[in-house]
Amino acid sequence: MQYSADLDHLQVAIQPVECDIPAEERTRLQTFLAPLGGAVNDFPTADLGIKVIHHPRSQVYHVEFKLKLPDQTLFTGEEDAYLDAAFQRGVRKLLRKVETHKEHPNRSALEAAERRADLDRDVVAPEDPAAGPLAEAVQRGDYWAFRTALAGYEEWLRKRVGRWVQRYPDAEAQVGRKLLLGDLLEEVYLNAFERFRQRPTDVRLSEWLDHLIDPSLKTLLRHPDEEHENASLARTVRQAPLEQK
User: Fold this and answer.
1) To pair with 152 at 20 to 30 A between CA atoms, which of 35, 93, 101, 123?
2) pLDDT for the residue 241
3) In this predicted structure, what is the pLDDT of residue 244?
4) Are strands 10-17 and 60-68 parallel, antiparallel or unpaired?
5) CA-CA distances (angstroms) from residue 57 to 19, 20, 54, 82, 171?
6) Interhelix angle 154-165/181-195, nearest 10 degrees
7) Phi then psi for 48, rounded to 5 degrees?
8) Sign, Cα dihedral of 216, 217, 220, 222
9) Residues of the chain below pLDDT 70
10) Are residues 130 and 230 in the same domain?
């Protein structure tokens, strides 16, 4: 069973493997994370995944930490016969990595993440899924207005699409022939338009768009001709208003 927590600016998910972590122990472990929560407070987002693995034969706990920051993902791990000891040492190591990273940040990636965070706040209102320019465009069936409202994500999403295809050698081999990255990008937007009313409101808009890339790619690979036609039609629809001006 996975446990989640929101500590200041730090989103935490703890996944036990071959063990159970009682509620009082989870509370104690979360107190060990307080310094880390303060250290990442200046980042637009910070997501920490912790895997607690218990090895029954050796009676040792192995704790793995994965901290996803906007411009880099930091990893570390520790093991000990006592969970608290392994956990605290791992947190201290991760904290040192964060401090080192803050001294040498990837500024362009941070600025891009901050822009996306601003867009997330401005474009979508999680507390009211029927409000905002995206929801209004979906209600009107206006795909062009929907795409226009998401224009700030275009460069970031195009890069994400390109990187995602690289995960599938068979798909990457078809790029430029049967598979066009522009079609995949448009497929993501089309899926976002169709599924917007059902989107989860407890995740950032950029994260939700990112999760649509993989199913969009698989659909495109299954039906390349049909989806190419859909993408071409979608591009025509959103270009038409510009041509009429």
Assistant:
1) 101
2) 46
3) 41
4) unpaired
5) 13, 16, 9, 14, 43
6) 120
7) -110, 120
8) negative
9) 1-8, 105-131, 223-245
10) yes
